[in-house]
């Protein structure tokens, strides 16, 4: 049976104020509360341990006695009689085995009983009636890019409960939204937890998205690139007609303002669409076409 460092259990130092002790206890008690960690025996042992730490450090008399004799608890009676600090035992490291042994049977540890005479009996096992917010829940919703081009309503089933959800246009891949009070039930009358939904947007086979802007490549045949003219290009909302300048080079980029993706949470605001022209070279030529290209080459060489 070794010394138990209650300050270490709560993650505070020996100069902690009562308010700091209370804050640390609430944080740790919520983390390990049995109602939030069902069937987790290790969490239950931790919960028991932080309750015991709070029982001591939150009581001025117990804390004073613990601070005075804690590490020398085996000799406290001799110290009290002599008023002498006496021999000081070195503090023990609290191993997992020690932890399991000390808090494995419920109630308070042997160390506590030895110092304070028992009587605790585990009366704080419910968390002293403190209200704890319920456990937050997390879910992932997979969508296609075109699914979030406009606002959409979906009904999701999470933990057996149906949730009506409005998905705003322009939601991004990896974006997370919070739906309040749709998580786990609270403890001791505390509020429900929240539900966090993370969106996973699959890549589109045609358009590449960067924020609210879209990018795409458009194939242009050699003759149209040389002579110019009109071309039809796709956008997410339909096809549009563009004028192509004569002598358009391979890799030329153009911007179609407002033809990109909707900006999240801004109605009627859109990004831009960037098109890159890819000039395609014919892979086979007829004898007549080859002859014409040779004539053209000769003309260019004589300029």
Give structural notes.
It is elongated, with a radius of gyration of 36 Å. It has 303 residues and is an alpha+beta fold. Helix 2 packs antiparallel against helix 3 (41-57). Helices cover 29% and strands 24% of the residues. It folds into 3 domains: 6-116, Helix Hairpins (Orthogonal Bundle), CATH 1.10.287; 137-202, HSP40/DNAj peptide-binding domain (Sandwich), CATH 2.60.260; 208-301, HSP40/DNAj peptide-binding domain (Sandwich). A 4-stranded mixed β-sheet has the order 6-7-11-10. Strand 8 (229-235) and strand 9 form a beta hairpin. It has helices spanning 6-10, 18-32, 41-57, 60-69, 76-82, 96-102, 110-116, 222-227, 287-301; strands at residues 137-144, 152-158, 161-167, 176-179, 195-202, 208-210, 213-221, 229-235, 238-244, 253-256, 273-280. It is built from 9 helices and 11 strands.
**C-alpha end-to-end distance:** 101 Å
Count of domains: 3
Number of helices: 9
In terms of per-residue confidence, which ranges show pLDDT below 50 for 5 or more consecutive residues? 78-97, 120-126
SSE arrangement, N to C: HHHHHHHEEEEEEEHEEEEH
Percentage of residues in DSSP E strands: 15-25%
CATH class term of the largest domain: Mainly Alpha
Q: For the largest beta sheet, what order do the strands appear in spatially?
A: 6-7-11-10
Oligomer: single chain
Radius of gyration: 36 Å
The helicity comes to 25-40%
Main pleated sheet: 4 strands, mixed
Q: What is the 3D shape? A: elongated
State mean pLDDT (0 to 100 scale): 83
